[in-house]
Amino acid sequence: MRHLHPTLHLLLTSACVFAALSISVGCSALTGGSSFDVTPPEESELPLMDRLAPVDGTIISALETGITKRWSDLSPTGRARFSEDEWNAAIESVDRHAEHLTYSSDGLRIGGLLVRPASTEGRRLGAVVVNRDGIAGRGLDKDLILADLARYANEGFVAVASVYRGNRHSQGVDEFGGDDVNDVLSLVTLVQRLDYVDPGRVFMVGFGRGGLMTYRALEMDAPIRAAAVVSGIADVEQIEASNPEVSRGFSDAGGWEGLDKIYGGWDGAEKSRELERRSPRVRAGDGDTPLMIVHGRLNERVPVVQALDVAVRWQKSGTPVESVIYGYGDHDLVEQQADWRARVMAWIKRHDSRSLLN
């Protein structure tokens, strides 16, 4: 059996004690079973007490993990995001400092990943919640997520990411910015409870669809010190009008049934209501969390007007906002990644320093 970090073992043990008293859950970290692949049981087959779930943000299981792919095994996109030296450094950073998590959110078991700095003993560290791009199985690459988290851990932060609901690692249905935002909020609660994290120093970074999750988490008053959104979606209604997959779904990467089927054939008022709920730019004027917005002018997936609209509204609210628009940048911003990553890290550290001084 692989060993757990002592803090996670303590939290997991507490969660399992709760479970033993009230529900039946698979505390696989204590028995050596896999915790990342969750096979949702049929609810009708479960007794009533088994359908009760621990409170949101409870760690149900945690297993030590690491990066298994070599750099040469990565897709062209992955190799563009990391040089071979960067990838090898990430493998070393993650080794013995990362966990697969299964945690509770809305009564579901959700998969997540955590990477911590080499030393946490006696420390209260800041944390970064990273919201990934992609829908359902698209964009869901454990090793790439771990390597991204390692960037923040190497700077002294505890870094966590949810894989969201509705894929091979989590129960539920991916709602593309609907109730699945609760998976992000539950992860914030989880990380605040870690005894080596300062709950007042939690930050959030979202890319693409992860930007949508970040915007929505902020409008739901997530306790975030500062946030950054890169190539982020802020208006799903506009995306849906140009991309039929939002409504119809897709079959690759494990498939996704699309919002039309999820809502049983949406149309008229219901469709407008659900799309508006997923379009945080219309409510951006209420933002009160310092925000950095990074976008490419040539982004064809998420028009740059969405980023500019949020920036203007955020600025009018009087909340600190910093916008970085790359004139020749596309959605992935691969050519600009060294610059934007440095800017995002500086933004986080700037607001972390203010927190430490208060």
Structural features, described:
The chain has 14 helices and nine strands. The protein is α/β, with parallel strands linked by helices and 358 residues long. The chain has a single domain, classed as Rossmann fold (3-Layer(aba) Sandwich), CATH 3.40.50.1820. It has a nine-stranded mixed β-sheet with strand order 1-2-3-5-4-6-7-8-9, sandwiched between helices. Strand 4, helix 6 and strand 5 form a beta-alpha-beta unit.
Q: Quote the beta fraction.
A: 15-25%
Assign the CATH architecture. Answer: 3-Layer(aba) Sandwich
Largest sheet: 9 strands, mixed
CATH homologous superfamily placement: Alpha/Beta hydrolase fold, catalytic domain
The CATH class is identified as: Alpha Beta
Radius of gyration: 20 Å
Distance between the termini: 43 Å
Helix-strand pattern: HHHEHHEEEHEHEHEHHHHEHEH
Count of strand segments? 9
- Overall pLDDT confidence: 86
Poorly predicted tracts of residues: 6-10, 12-44, 46-50
Kindly name the structural category. alpha/beta
Structural features:
about 350 residues; alpha/beta; Rossmann fold; 9-stranded mixed sheet; 14 helices; about 15% strand; globular
Task: Report a brief summary of the structure.
This protein has 358 residues and is α/β, with parallel strands linked by helices.
Topology, element by element:
Elements lengths: L5 H17 L5 H4 L16 H4 L7 E6 L11 H6 L2 H11 L3 E8 L2 E8 L9 E7 L10 H12 L4 E5 L18 H13 L3 E11 L1 H11 L7 E4 L5 H7 L2 H4 L9 H5 L5 H10 L13 E6 L7 H13 L4 E6 L10 H21 L1
Parallel strand pairs: 4-5, 4-6, 6-7, 7-8, 8-9
Antiparallel strand pairs: 1-2, 2-3, 3-5
